[in-house]
Each structure stands twice: as structure tokens, then as C-alpha cells.
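Exercise 7 asks you to align residues with C-alpha cells for two separate proteins.
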Amino acid sequence: MSTLESVIWHVLGYSAIPFIILTGFLAVAVVCIWILSLWKDKEV
């Protein structure tokens, strides 16, 4: 692998890390909100 290819793969890898973390955080938040909405009092 050339130096250029190595740099490209490192940049792609490190730029994907925040995307993966934020996507996971949003998925957990959506699931938690959905579960809480199932348990809320329906009479209000």
C-alpha cells in the first residue's frame, strides 16, 4: 500500500468514528423515547 492510500484510509477511518458514535447515540435515544412513550399515562 502506498503512502497516499494509507493516508486516505486513515482519514476515512477517523472521519467515520464520530459518525458511528453519533448514529449509535441517536438510535439509543429514539428507542428510549419510544419505550417511555409506551409507558406514559394515556389519560392525560
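Second protein for Exercise 7:
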Amino acid sequence: MFNSEIGRKLAAIVCTILFSATCVAGAVGPATGGGQTAVVTAARLTA
């Protein structure tokens, strides 16, 4: 698909950035969305 070495390097860099952004979004999204639910559940179990 890519005939030049520069094209291959550029494609590898773009894929790396997209994969990293997807991993970060997947890790941060659930952590920020489900934090309060876990706290409420723990409070109910101990009360």
C-alpha cells in the first residue's frame, strides 16, 4: 500500500497515536463514570 519508507513510518505513527488514545479513553471513561456508584454501594453495605 505504501511505496516509500516515509509513508510506512507515518502510518505506524498514526496507528500508534490512535491506539494509545483509544486505550486511554477506555481506561478513563469507566473510572470517571462509575466512581460514585461504587461509593454508594459500599456505604449501603456498611451501614
